[in-house]
Design brief:
elongated, 47% helix
């Protein structure tokens, strides 16, 4: 039932047929609908996953710089990572922070004897989106004495040759293929 029908249910049938009352009723229903939509929009700003114009408030609250040139999804990833990245630093915490940036499978391995962490993107082919923000978030959370190595998954020649069609290859980004590293 529309808001206009709900409002008209509150008045006597005699007034529904009057043009003046009908005009007032319609105007009031339009204003109530605008108010209801505005309240829903404000409510969406209270949650990171649905915020749009409220992302700047989240960034200010967390002490993050606001970069309006980034997409809303990239900004949400930074905010989610900041919210997750508190407490004792564990492999699970680092994995949670990294997962905020990439929806694929991520593995975090620690090698304390080498003072090293390895973050492997097992479910994403090529470079994940928003990689610079992910690196900054990991740097902010990890202990300063640990180095971080990022391992990416690429398409190799044996995965492409006689396996993928031209159309499938054209649909891939160049960043999905293993970079040439001279010997």
């Amino acid at each position: 039932m529309s808001l206009r029908e709900q409002v008209s249910g509150y008045i006597a049938p005699l007034y529904k047929e009057d043009l003046t009352c009908g005009s007032v009723l319609n105007a009031g229903a339009d204003e109530l609908e605008l108010l209801e939509n505005g309240m829903e929009d404000v409510l969406k700003q209270l949650f990171v996953d649905t915020a749009t114009w409220g992302l700047a408030s989240w960034e200010e609250f967390l002490g993050l710089p606001t970069d309006a040139a980034k997409s809303d999804n990239d900004r949400r990833a930074v905010i989610r990572s900041q919210l997750r990245g508190s407490g004792t630093v564990t492999v699970e915490l680092l994995q949670s922070v990294a997962q905020a940036y990439d929806n694929g499978q991520i593995e975090v391995m620690e090698e304390p004897e080498l003072y090293k962490l390895t973050i492997r993107f097992a479910g994403t082919i090529g470079l994940p989106p928003n990689l610079d923000d992910l690196k900054a978030a990991v740097e902010a959370v990890k202990p300063a004495h640990l180095a971080v190595v990022y391992v990416f998954k690429y398409l190799l020649v044996n995965q492409v040759h006689n396996v993928m069609t031209i159309e499938e290859l054209e649909g891939r980004s160049l960043y999905d293929f293993a970079p040439f590293i001279p010997a």
